[in-house]
Design goal:
With about 130 residues, the protein is an alpha/beta fold. It is built from 5 helices and 5 strands.
C-alpha cells in the first residue's frame, strides 16, 4: 500500500508536522517536511513526492500561493494535494485549484491516513493498466 510512496508535509506547526510524519512513517511511507511554502516548492522539485500535504497559513509563502505555483511548475493535478487548514471557508477556492482533498484542523490522524490512501487509489484508477493500491 505505502510501498515506495513519498509524501511531502508542508506545515509551519512543527509538532503537528512531526506527529503526522511519525504516523505516516509507521505505515511505510517515506516523508519529507517543509515549514513554509517556499521550502515546500524547493523540496517538491528535489524529492518528487507522490503526494503533498499542504497547510494554508505558513510564513514566507502561504499554502494557496504554494499550490498555485506547484500547479504552474508541475501541471495542475499531477501530484495529489491534500490541504490542511483551520479555515474551512476556503474549501471552494482550493477545489477550483484542483486539490485532491481537504482536512480541517484539528483532525483525526486515522482520517488523514484514510484520505491519503483514497487519493492514491483514485490516482491508480486514473492510470490505465496500473494496479490498485
Amino acid at each position: 500500500m505505502a510501498e515506495g510512496k513519498k509524501i511531502l508535509i508542508a506545515d509551519d506547526e512543527q509538532q503537528l508536522a512531526l506527529a503526522v510524519k511519525i504516523r505516516l512513517q509507521s505505515k511505510g511511507y517515506q516523508v519529507v517536511t517543509a515549514s513554509d511554502g517556499q521550502a515546500a516548492l524547493e523540496l517538491a522539485e528535489k524529492e518528487h513526492p507522490d503526494l503533498i500535504i499542504l497547510d494554508v497559513l505558513m510564513p514566507v509563502m502561504d499554502g494557496y500561493s504554494c499550490l498555485r505555483e506547484l500547479n504552474v511548475r508541475f501541471g495542475r493535478g499531477k501530484v495529489p494535494i491534500i490541504v490542511l487548514t483551520a479555515r474551512d471557508r476556503m474549501k471552494d477556492l482550493f477545489e477550483l485549484e484542483g486539490i485532491e482533498d481537504y482536512v480541517i484542523k484539528p483532525f483525526d490522524h486515522e482520517d488523514l491516513l484514510m484520505r491519503i490512501e483514497r487519493a492514491f487509489k483514485r490516482r491508480a484508477a486514473k492510470q490505465p493498466g496500473a494496479p490498485a493500491i
